[in-house]
Specification:
The protein is of the alpha/beta class and 675 residues long. The strands form seven sheets. Strands 16-15-17-18-23-22-21-19-20 form a nine-stranded mixed β-sheet, covered by helices on one side. Strands 4-3-2-5-6-33 form a six-stranded mixed β-sheet, sandwiched between helices. The longest helix has 24 residues, at 3-26.
Length: 675
């Protein structure tokens, strides 16, 4: 409180006392106790009112001790149970969190992790995936800008995510508490099997198999791939103490069209502790044709290579590169991609008026927009010769096909000529354009359909940067390639639109997310948000049936069927208001990745400890871990002074007190006949 404020308060005391004295004593005929009471009430009321007008600021200091966080992350995946360490993990966790010395020194944070990290002090060890990378990223966000230790109680066997060794902050020590039997057992394992989802009829498709051996003696194993009762491939594989791995590259025939399920297995004469990891089921969908996509361009540009790779990420697509004068190569083409068309493309447009092939037109700074105005009437271009960068804005009401926002707002701008672009007729806009965050209300990615012919427009070049940015954001090209594939799928399909459109895979692996998406359109082919969609799922063998409601998301409905056991399933999606339905089937392959391990990954956890200057401990060394944490002088409690400043005018009760004092004074005067 400042000196001026103190002087004003003293002056207030004098004024309040003077006014009270003047009214009740200076001219008073009687100096009874009533007058004393009235003078006192008036003094308090006037002083309190003056104090409110002065409004002094009251400062309150509170000392708070902030402890260093200690993050304890417990592996809640099923591999802990498979290694028979679930009880031990719970005991180790309780030993840490109940230790009085640790409680006094640290702010203990309890977490569990499987596919992701979440706060918890109760564990059921039923997680279907292990993602230690998620632990690293989440703890960075939770305890940002803080130096803190992390204890991970785990077997170190990761089944999804990036390599966790280099994902933890190197400034924060990680202490691994390794659970599971570290004794080396004889074990043969199919470590990984790589195969494409699709193959083409009457061709051969490659299968790459990585085999792993744990043991000290030389041994010979039999590897085979079986379909039904038929052995498709068989090989003998030798292992020894110096040769722990083997890689097989096989070619299997695609003789039948449709979903083909295979079983890969490895065996020997020696009994194994874990035989579950000797078998791996996989499936391939054999298709009898491949759609051809032609990219027509008169120039070279990185967009073309990026678009080709993105389209061909779907094995059902084949891309050919064509010059505008090579019309003879465009027979049996499903979609024409016209990259920056100019007058040289006139033979292509003339030929396509008869062929009626759906087109994907991509413009840029080399496009002849006057020529493009003459060849189509869906968009009207009035462009200058000045170049401009266009950002994009996702339109969530787009309803031609189900599409998620994959982070379009983070994508770099596309370059096009500056001007106005207006739509003509029935044009659906997926991405609209912005110039320096100012919306232009013009399309950037749009779709049109006239008399059964479909056309897509991407109005700008440098979309190769979009694919690169998507990889930076998601550590994979998959999301962007799916986005591209949906555009091509829409253009490649000549079928009329259905009221109920359902998207699903032909097969799923156990442990994967089993998501089925659906869209329902009204008579005007507008997405109906009020639709009521249900799904009936029936096991083809046991005939057990389950019903679920589909939940509305962003421009689509979806259902997550996680938890279904392996097997073949038939399903039916139904819209309850109109009884519109869709039927389909899928298969869940028997593969539990959490049952693949016989030992903890000690080497990886020791590497993690080395990377973060921490230390790895075994399950019988919990006391040593506690001692290490307590003796580390790097983690100290911090005492902070929290200073809170409160203006007196915020004290509502003081205003109430003034009203109460004046009211009491009035009643006393009224009672004694002084009014």
């Amino acid at each position: 409180m400042t000196t001026n404020t103190i002087l004003l308060l003293l002056l207030s005391l004098v004024i309040a006392g003077g006014l009270s004295y003047f009214q009740y004593y200076f001219k008073a005929k009687s100096k009874s106790n009533v007058m004393v009471l009235l003078a006192f009430l008036r003094f308090l009321a006037i002083f309190a009112l003056l104090v409110l007008l002065i409004n002094p600021v009251i400062t309150k200091n509170e000392w708070v001790v902030t402890k260093t966080p200690l993050a304890i992350a417990v592996d809640n995946s099923a591999s802990i149970t498979a290694l028979k360490s679930d009880k031990k993990v719970t005991e180790l966790y309780q030993e840490l969190v109940s230790n009085p010395a640790l409680q006094e020194k640290f702010e203990i944070q309890s977490y569990q992790f499987d596919a992701d990290l979440k706060p918890s002090a109760i564990f059921d060890f039923k997680g279907k995936q292990t993602n230690l990378d998620a632990v690293a990223q989440s703890l960075k966000s939770i305890n940002r800008n803080i130096i803190f230790p992390t204890v991970i109680i785990t077997d170190g066997n990761q089944t999804t995510g990036n390599d966790y060794v280099y994902r933890f902050d190197p400034l924060n020590k990680v202490y691994s508490l390794i659970v599971g039997d570290t004794t080396t057992f004889f074990d043969l394992k199919i470590n990984q099997l790589n195969v494409n989802k699709y193959a083409f009829h009457k061709n051969k498709f490659p299968v790459e198999v990585f085999l792993q051996y744990a043991g000290d003696k030389s041994t010979t194993a039999d590897f085979s791939i079986v379909q039904g009762n038929s052995v498709i491939a068989k090989e003998k594989v030798s292992f020894s103490s110096s040769k722990k791995t083997a890689t097989l590259n096989l070619l299997l025939p695609a003789d039948k069209v449709g979903l083909q399920v295979f079983k890969a297995s490895i065996s020997s004469n020696t009994k194994e502790k874990n035989s579950y990891n000797n078998i791996k089921n996989f499936a391939v969908e054999v298709i009898d044709q491949k759609s051809v996509i032609a990219i027509v361009s008169a120039i070279n540009h990185p967009d073309i290579a990026a678009l080709k790779r993105s389209i061909e990420s779907n094995a059902q697509r084949k891309v050919i590169l064509v010059k505008p004068n090579e019309i003879n190569l465009l027979q049996d083409v499903s979609v024409l991609v016209l990259y920056q068309p100019t007058a040289a493309f006139k033979p292509i447009f003339d030929n396509n008026k008869l062929a009626g092939t759906n087109t994907f037109i991509i413009t840029g700074t080399n496009t002849d927009f006057n020529f493009l105005n003459q060849q189509q009437n869906n968009l009207i271009f009035k462009m200058s010769n000045q170049r401009e960068d266009y950002l994009n804005e996702f339109q969530s009401q787009f309803n031609l096909f189900a599409i998620d926002n994959i982070g379009f707002e983070n994508f770099p701008p596309l370059q096009n000529l500056f001007g106005t672009i207006s739509t003509n007729g029935n044009v659906s806009v997926l991405l609209s354009s912005k110039i320096r965050n100012v919306s232009t209300n013009a399309p950037l990615l749009a779709f049109a359909e006239n008399q059964g012919k479909r056309t897509a427009f991407l109005l700008g070049e440098n979309s190769w940067k979009w694919r690169l940015q998507s990889h930076i954001d998601h550590q994979s090209f998959e999301k962007y390639d799916v986005f591209t594939d949906k555009i091509i799928q829409y253009l490649a399909s000549a079928a009329s639109r259905k009221s109920l459109v359902v998207t699903h895979e032909s097969f799923y692996n156990s442990g994967e997310a089993i998501v089925i998406n659906a869209q329902y359109f009204n008579k005007n082919y507008e997405f109906d948000e009020k639709a009521r969609l249900t799904i009936n799922v029936t096991n083809a063998v046991t005939k057990q049936t389950k019903n679920y409601d589909l939940l509305k998301g962003n421009n689509s409905f979806s259902v997550n069927l996680d938890g279904l056991p392996a097997g073949k399933y038939n399903f039916s999606v139904k819209e309850l208001n109109t009884n519109t339905s869709y039927t389909g089937h899928f298969e869940i392959l028997d593969f539990d990745i959490e049952k693949q391990f016989v030992n903890p990954d000690v080497l990886k956890l020791k590497q993690l400890a080395l990377q973060t200057n921490g230390k790895a401990f075994f399950q019988n060394q919990a006391a040593e871990l506690i001692k290490t944490l307590l003796e580390n002088k790097e983690y100290k409690s911090i005492e902070k002074n929290n200073s809170t400043k409160t203006p007196l005018i915020d004290w509502v009760w003081l205003l109430i007190l003034i009203v109460a004092l004046l009211t009491t004074e009035w009643f006393v005067r009224k009672y004694n006949g002084l009014l």
